[in-house]
Fold:
Amino acid sequence: MRRSLESCRVPLQRFRAATGGNITITFSLAFLPLLALTGAALDYSGASALRSRLQAATDGTNMQLCQMPATATQADLEAAARASLASYMGSEPVTIDAVTTTPAPRQVRLATASVFPTAVMRMINTRFATMRVGATSQCTGQQQTFEIALVLDNTGSMAHASGGVSKMDALKSAATTFVNRVFDDPRIGAYAKISLVPFAAAVAVDPALARGASWLDQNGRASYHWNLVQGGSAAVAPYAAYGIRNRLAVFDYLNGAMPGGAWAWTGCLESRTYPFNVDDSAPTNANPDSYFVPMLNPDESGNGGELTHKDAAGADVVSMNSFMDDTNASCAPTTDEAKRTGQACKYMQVTNPRTTNGYVATGPNAICTTRPLTRLTTARATLTAEIAAMQPAGSTNIHEGFAWGWRTLSPNAPLANGVPYGTQANNKIVILMTDGANTWSSNPSNPTLRSTYSAYGYVRNPDGSTADSRLMPANAAPANDGQTRAAMDALTAEGCRRARAGGVSIYTIGFSVAGDEMDQQGLDLLSGCAGDASKAFVATSSGTIGSVFEQIFRDIGKLRLSM
Structure:
């Protein structure tokens, strides 16, 4: 019985071995589908990543296509699409399935495709060697329009040389290149307008166009219109019979005394009262101070051309702008310094007119040193000619420069050239460039006026009023150069803040070169005006101002559209 059992074990063991082979085969057959599923998952993951990259590239490319001019041909669109897709995808293959456009509103649809080389699935079947992925993008693109104001410092310090080139010459080159870059760019040029605002101590408008304008204070009603004479409007009332109803009429009398029209109004305007001088509101009859008043640099005490003279007590009085005698057939001699300064009668009968005191130019336009601003225009030649004509002279008033740059973009009077605020796809941009600090010099040697003349008048005007109506309340009664600068800085900052709140983008450039550096207060003012550190630039040499304008051009050229 035992032998029989022993003899039975061998066949059983062999059977078990044979059965084990069948299990291995069965397991292997079951593993193949599992391997295929795992490989497919890996390949699908790779294809999904490719599709994500393709979709991003297609979206980005289609944004560019939407921004192209409506006149672009099918070939132009496809060429631009190929170039853009290559920049996104590198060496990965991409094909364009379709580029279609529809008008009103303009829409662009882009369909693309790529292939993903599988790693596992190709081993199972060569039919699965690649996986095709696709992407589509559709955008509705309204053509962007651009209104750009170039607000450029034309003050005397711009004559300073850097690297053998004056800052003014470097600025002219950079600004000219910028204008050409804008108008040559197919995405921007046909949809852009540019204005030019040269500024120094003030800003000028074209006097021929502005002289009869309704936004000027033609009737002399503004509270500061007659502050150049003692007694104000009451003092000039007797001269109404001679046609004296505003400062322009006074200019006519002054100009009549000078051969060749040397004293005709050259277009500079005083700053309006606060808060009109930090906004772009249109003048209104409801408030006469909202109107603009021609700048008329008053004749200061002293005979024509005298820089200094003695007062009744024998003390020296410094008058920066004495351009005629204080007495004439109508004006009796007086030792009263205030009266010598503010007699209205001397303007009606000009005696001993002088255009210099031996140091600086004198006259009713003495601090109006810049050419008139150029309104928004597409006339490239006009802009480049005006840039070429800029010359460095005078002191710095960044506040008024910026304010007039903003006004060139405004839909409101006085210029009313800009499209209405909120116009879809319109970009209002101010580029403000300066190399200095706001300047309004005190003059303690003239106890009547206490300062030099500025766009804000005097610290104390000939009629006895102060400049406080032009200043923010916190900066009232400035007593020295630091305080007048702070007052002007505050107006600049407030104007910039209001413009940004109204939708204006601001770029600032501080031109600070070795030997003529801007101080930190000036740089901080510009940075705050821009409101964004990425839009505040500093050029440290005449060689770098061009690259700064190029950076701003590229930033403006960034595409903005809805997807």
In short: The first helix runs from residue 2 to 67.
